Amino acid sequence: MARKPKAPAHPETLCAHAGSGAGGEFRSLNAPIYMTSTFALKESGEVGPYFYTREGNPTRAALERALCELEGGAVAVATAAGVAAETTALSLFPAGSNVIAGKALYGGTLRLFREAFEPRGLSFTFVDMRDAKAVAAAVRPDTRCLWIETPTNPLLNLVDIAAMAKIASAEKIITVVDGTFASPCFQKPLALGADVVVHSTTKYINGHSDVVGGAVIARSAELGRKLASLARTLGTPGSPFDAFLVLRGIKTLALRMQAHERAATALARFLETRIEVERVYYPGLESHPQHELAKRQMTGFGGMLAFDLKGGKPAVMRLFRRVRLFTPAASLGGVESLISHPPSLSHSALTPKERKAAGIREGLVRVSCGIEHADDLVADMKQALSLL
Ligand code: PLP
Questions:
Q1: How far is the CA of 82 from the centre of ligand 1 (A)?
Q2: What is the pLDDT of residues 220-236, one digit of tens each?
Q3: How far apart are CA 59 and CA 74, in angstroms?
Q4: Directed axis angle between helix 312-322 and helix 374-386, to 10°?
Q5: Does ligand 1 lie within 6 Å of residue 165's CB atom?
Q6: pTM for this one?
Q7: DSSP letters along 320-367, please?
Q8: What's the confidence (pLDDT) of residue 19?
């Protein structure tokens, strides 16, 4: 189906239309699910536009177009998990390369660094990426990548993407930004100078807690071609069925992000008033040490927050038994609110010493605010905290 010329779009419009116009024989509005592993050759024996689903699939291609539109990228690859997107991006770097990364990252990313890439010859330098000078000082002749997670999981620290891109361009280093917590609706790393964005689409981009998926998106066609070729070689691309679900999720992404943020703002402000709570981490709060950067770098503060509960892990477990609207579970970014204890779940791969160094305390609670009414979430948290 011929694509209409694009008008400049607000996020709601962009999301509602992203990847549509898939067309095909019946001019369907939505991309059909091409649930096939292979495609018949032409009668001439030549290969058609698609020949094997690991190499390419029309449903996945529709999602990849949508991801390029959302991020402003040249090439996207939709992968089988966020970690598969990370694997694809890290595979750009040959053995002997050094990667500079933040100290407080998603635990699964650290595990991937340590258990898969370090043994194969990559070295990792961990610095506090809130400090651009410390990052610049850590650059070595063999540094090939700045690995940036912003906002970070679970403490909602921010990294100044433009400042990192400046360091990297001077040194010809590739900047990779894990933008999972912000989604493309609230943060555009490529426009800020980053080279590659990775996402766990499991989270906000799909948004319905029914897919594990990921995406890697490149600003330049050249880097994008390398990533797409690596993905086909590594076998990291995702399934057409999952691509369809993620495409459906994207249609409401902008609206969902607004609702997540409304809920998170109300809950963060409420938690700041409670004596049971030692500290609240949410970039939208004036008390967040990087609130000014959040306002500059992001167009919304997101739906994730964390707080330190007095009384450590036993108090956290009591809270989990008492909340009704927050399901204690791993993951985030779905329409329903989830609550978790990072030291025992997402960051259990870190040693207690590493968690301490990253600022992750035993009483830390992470909340993924869903799209429920903010008043209901605040009321539920209030009754649960008052029973502690
Ligand atoms: N990046 C971040 C920031 C995450 O929080 C996660 C998972 O929680 C991932 C990457 C990995 O994504 P997946 O679980 O889809 O592999």
A1: 5
A2: 999 999 999 999 999 99
A3: 18
A4: 130
A5: no
A6: 0.96
A7: HHH-SSSEE-S---SSS-EEE-GGGTTTTTS-HHHHHHHT--TTEEEE
A8: 82
